[in-house]
Amino acid sequence: MKKIDGHLHLVRNIAGLNGKGRLNALGDGKAIWDDGTVIQLIPEDSGDDSFTAEAAMQLMDKADVEKAVLLQGSLNGYQNYYSYQMIKKYPERFIGAFSVDPFADKAMAIVRRHVEELGFRAIKFEISQGGGLHGYHGNEPFRLDTDARVGQIFHYLADYPGFTVAVDYGSYEQVSYQPEAIVNLAARYPMIDFVVCHLSFPSEKHLNRLKAALDAFQSKRNIYVDLSAIQDIQADTTFPYPKCQQMVALAKEVLGAKRLIWGTDSPWSATFNSYENLANWLVASGLFDGEELADILYNNADKVYFKQTAVEAAAQANDPALN
């Protein structure tokens, strides 16, 4: 069965930044935060201090994954330009989103460059307190639906119907958790598609909380959720992940299969569970029939992210680095 990994990260240079400080490569796929925390960032045999497009495609090919959506995150550090280069090099395999820190003085110039010159048609906001913007802008909490800096970005994106906005807002314990902001934005910008990453950071012990968020999303047809990294969130390592099945069954009940997007959040997630298992667990779960699986594993991501089959050809003419 065809698959699109709807949530994948490439890592050309480890440049992570969050509340633990900067992330530095150690080799053997490991990295260390400034506070001394060591993590295994890259799965074995997939890179020493990088996770390249070629390494990703090796994992994808073994798991019959045809294409992938390249997202950005503070864990790895924004890999905007490398993602752009790989979309240009492998247009049949990748599409992607860029990220920007809205607190940056040149934030709007960065947005315009990526949209107008490089041709991106998706943006990722990783605002989580645990791993994103709220972790290093914690003295100034902000909401996506009311902050003037973020609002300026959305006003601009409204001129690009069909644009996609992916959001990771972390778990309910974090000040960054704001599912209601996604609902407000989806109503305000019906021409934009919104993807809530990681199934709104669910907990098997708090399914009512997840249902409340999904019920709110259900009213807006331009809101989707991706299913990436929920194994990590639940510390669920027994294939085919019974804890995760409970939450995905609820998502199916509330949103339906046409608004769920499979993804892995590799490379980091592939250090907890094999990429092959992450690629096959939904089939093994028995939760979905063949048509539903086709939507979740391929069609929905194709519809939401691959509106532009590749970064526009005009971008190359505007980019001296590729000429």
UniProtKB/TrEMBL annotation:
Signal peptide: none annotated. GO terms for molecular function: carboxy-lyase activity; hydrolase activity. SUPFAM superfamilies: Metallo-dependent hydrolases. Pfam families: Amidohydro_2. InterPro entries: ACMSD (IPR032465), Amidohydro-rel (IPR006680), Metal_Hydrolase (IPR032466). PANTHER family: 2-AMINO-3-CARBOXYLMUCONATE-6-SEMIALDEHYDE DECARBOXYLASE, CATALYTIC_ HYDROLASE. Keywords: Lyase. This is Amidohydrolase-related domain-containing protein. Residues 4-306 form the Amidohydrolase-related domain.
